[in-house]
From TrEMBL:
<dbReference type="Pfam" id="PF02806">
    <property type="entry name" value="Alpha-amylase_C"/>
</dbReference>
<comment type="similarity">
    <text>Belongs to the glycosyl hydrolase 13 family.</text>
</comment>
<keyword id="KW-0326">Glycosidase</keyword>
<keyword id="KW-0119">Carbohydrate metabolism</keyword>
<protein>
    <recommendedName>
        <fullName>alpha-amylase</fullName>
        <ecNumber>3.2.1.1</ecNumber>
    </recommendedName>
</protein>
<keyword id="KW-0106">Calcium</keyword>
<keyword id="KW-0378">Hydrolase</keyword>
<feature type="transmembrane region" description="Helical">
    <location>
        <begin position="224"/>
        <end position="245"/>
    </location>
</feature>
<keyword id="KW-0732">Signal</keyword>
<keyword id="KW-0472">Membrane</keyword>
<feature type="transmembrane region" description="Helical">
    <location>
        <begin position="192"/>
        <end position="212"/>
    </location>
</feature>
<dbReference type="GO" id="GO:0005975">
    <property type="term" value="P:carbohydrate metabolic process"/>
</dbReference>
<dbReference type="InterPro" id="IPR017853">
    <property type="entry name" value="GH"/>
</dbReference>
<keyword id="KW-0812">Transmembrane</keyword>
<keyword id="KW-1133">Transmembrane helix</keyword>
<dbReference type="GO" id="GO:0046872">
    <property type="term" value="F:metal ion binding"/>
</dbReference>
<comment type="subunit">
    <text>Monomer.</text>
</comment>
Length: 246
């Protein structure tokens, strides 16, 4: 069987495997659509060329909102599952295949050094396994079902533990029978901390100022009315309580 865009799920699985496996020089197909006319096992329309007008001038592709092509062009190289795997190959360049796993049937998985991990499910049942990904601990975006977008994933995410293992799930109901993560698809683990740090700094500054005022009130004869009026809303109560406490 020749895999083409007409069996897109298998085609994407095969292309993902090709781009993930450390061998040779890879080529990604980019093609166009034509209506088939089968007769006696032969496509009578196999002569049809790329999209064209009535004078057989080739028509340029149009581009959809998701980056895919229109006007009769397929543009497999623009499919998210394929161009994300090109990045996978670039990230994993220079590493070997290691930690191969299979279920004895049509479910496989393997690492590319400590840079990438790929799993494929071509069985008629779900893949649900805890597997070695060889990647550092953290949360990674699956680059097949989506992409990493800033500090979040547009598709599935995979949580890798300190031992490099992660729960991997590819169900038969999913559009794609592949899952892939790599070093560049890891989410920043410090994103929340960085987001909260400015608030902690502000609170710390306010607390320091309050402490100084309280010390002044305890050791001097400042006008209490002026002090309380100069504090932010709600702060006077804190100062009053602090004055009572030893």
């Amino acid at each position: 069987m020749i895999l083409t865009f007409r069996v897109s799920k298998w085609y994407k699985m095969a292309t993902a495997y090709m781009l993930a496996w450390p061998y040779g020089y890879t080529r990604v197909m980019s093609s166009y659509y034509w209506d088939q006319w089968w007769e006696n096992g032969q496509d009578k329309n196999d002569w049809i060329g790329p999209p064209h007008d009535g004078s057989f001038n080739i028509i340029s592709p149009s581009f959809n909102a998701d980056g895919s092509c229109g006007n009769g062009w397929i543009c497999e190289h623009r499919w998210r599952q394929i161009y994300n795997m090109v990045e996978f190959r670039n990230v994993a360049h220079g590493t070997d295949m290691n930690d191969w796993w299979d279920n004895g049937s049509n479910q496989i998985a393997f690492c590319r050094g400590n840079k990438g991990f790929l799993a494929i499910n071509n069985d008629g049942w779900d893949l649900k396994e805890t597997l070695q990904t060889c990647l550092p601990a953290g949360t990674y975006c699956d680059v097949i079902s989506g992409s990493k977008d800033g500090g979040s994933c547009t598709g599935k995410s995979v949580t890798v533990g300190g031992d490099g293992k992660a729960y991997i799930e590819i169900t038969t109901m999913e559009d794609d029978g592949v899952l892939a993560i790599h070093a560049n698809s890891k989410l920043p683990s410090h994103g929340v901390v960085l987001h909260l740090c400015p608030w902690f700094s502000i609170l710390l500054g306010v607390c320091i100022q309050w402490t100084r005022i309280i010390r002044l009130l305890r050791t001097s004869s400042y006008d209490l009315a002026w002090v309380f009026n100069s504090l932010p809303a709600g702060a006077a109560g804190v100062v009053a309580i602090s004055m009572i406490l030893p």
